[in-house]
Write a structure and sequence with these properties.
Helix content: 10-25%
Organism: Psychroflexus sediminis
Strand content: 35-45%
Radius of gyration: 14 Å
Number of helices: 2
Number of strands: 8
Distance between the termini: 28 Å
Protein name: Carbon monoxide dehydrogenase subunit G
Length: 130
């Protein structure tokens, strides 16, 4: 399954946006209102739970300064990644696109596609106000 957000313009430089996203504790600020739980597990990992969904653990998997931050699921049950691709517009603004990639059977994919699309859209929209 492949889901990408619209590209969003952020009022921060590419470096500032990258630094914000690579510190996983900042994802708490991006979560939807329907979040029931957000817990830091380590400096590079966190657990979150949305209403009606199971808890999901994410860990910082890879970074490429200043244009890529990749979070990966910490469980093999739901293998997926969430990438933040950052590009510079000018010295005071950047553009971010979030990309979700996961391997799910067709039944699971059908059940989770809409909630994940909504989640990615919300994260992306909330990024514009950091």
């Amino acid at each position: 399954m492949y889901i990408e957000s619209e590209k969003k313009t952020i009022g921060k430089s590419q470096k500032e946006t990258f630094e914000f996203l690579k510190h996983v504790e900042n994802f708490k600020q991006l979560m939807p209102e329907s979040i029931e739980k957000f817990e830091m597990l380590a400096e590079d990992s966190f657990l979150f739970q949305l209403k009606g969904m199971p808890a999901i653990k994410l860990k910082l998997d890879k970074t490429e300064p200043h244009h890529l931050v990749v979070l990966a699921a910490a469980s093999d049950k739901l293998p997926f990644t969430l990438k933040g691709e950052i590009s510079a517009i000018d010295e005071n603004s950047s553009e971010v696109q979030l990309i979700f990639e996961g391997e799910f059977n067709s039944m699971m994919a059908m059940m989770i596609k809409k909630p994940i699309q909504k989640f990615i859209t919300t994260l992306s929209e909330n990024l514009t106000s950091i």
